[in-house]
Specification:
The longest helix has 20 residues. Helix content is 29%, strand content 14%. Helix 3 packs parallel to helix 5. The chain is globular. Helix 6 links the parallel strand 4 and strand 5. By secondary structure, the chain is α/β, with parallel strands linked by helices.
């Protein structure tokens, strides 16, 4: 697996982003957020580049921030599920596992193999922070998830701002980032629009845990751009 080793950066999203009609924020549920301050790339929803393999097979694993609130991904996609906005036009969602309130250890125990995964997007750690589980005690579980799905490329997603445990989440994020760099995985922070230091910027969350529905859309578009970029990068060897 080729080392890509970079944080995608960019500016604030422009005022021209179209918000879905009737967008609403998620009700309060178990905390599923955390992170440190970096800025996400501009989300464009770019198509898969010409000349790349069509139908990039994408699997996702995470907690409520991936499932779409305090629920299970197995219940189906909703406007609060970020993959809703990343899939299509050459990006094929092929499944995965996500349940609200879960730690990376629980994800590793539950995830099942999926055939021929091109890109895995793994976004975990928030509930480890909530349960005071250190990254050192979580690292092996990240590797277990990756080994189970055996993807060609791995994107480790940053956890979002954390209004309840900002310092603890920032420390976990520091180690998570270093792990991704050392292991040669892509590290992507799609939360630039929502960050005010280590907490949520005003208007981007009503519970300090989850983004608004409009925020989930921006996260999905940012991940789509990351998936396209990863697949367009030639592999070594």
């Amino acid at each position: 697996m080729r080392a890509v080793n970079r944080i995608l950066v960019g500016g604030l999203l422009t005022a021209t982003i179209v918000v879905l009609a009737g967008c609403a924020t998620l009700p309060h549920s178990e905390p599923n957020a955390g992170g440190f301050s970096t800025v996400a790339p501009m989300a464009t929803g770019a198509p898969v580049p010409e000349g790349s393999t069509p139908g990039v097979r994408v699997a996702i694993v995470g907690d409520s921030l991936t499932a779409g609130g305090g629920r299970s991904l197995s219940e189906g996609l909703t406007p609060n599920t970020w993959i809703t906005y990343a899939k299509g036009n050459g990006v094929d969602y092929v499944g995965g596992w996500a349940v609200g309130g879960t730690t990376i250890q629980q994800m590793a125990a539950a995830v099942k193999p999926i055939a021929k995964v091109d890109v895995l997007v793994l976004m975990a750690g928030t509930n480890d922070v909530r349960h005071k589980i250190s990254f050192a005690d979580s690292r092996a579980s990240y590797e277990k998830v990756i080994a189970t799905l055996h993807p060609k490329h791995v994107i480790i997603g940053a956890i979002p701002p954390n209004d309840r445990h900002p310092r603890q989440a920032a420390l976990y994020e520091k180690h998570l980032h270093a792990y991704a760099v050392t292991a040669g995985y892509d590290f992507v922070d799609p939360w630039g629009f929502a960050r005010d230091g280590d907490v949520y910027a005003p208007g981007t969350s009503l519970d300090g845990t989850h983004p608004t529905t409009a925020g989930y859309r921006l996260v999905g578009l940012a991940y789509r751009d990351a998936i396209v970029r990863v697949m367009a990068t030639p592999k070594v060897g």
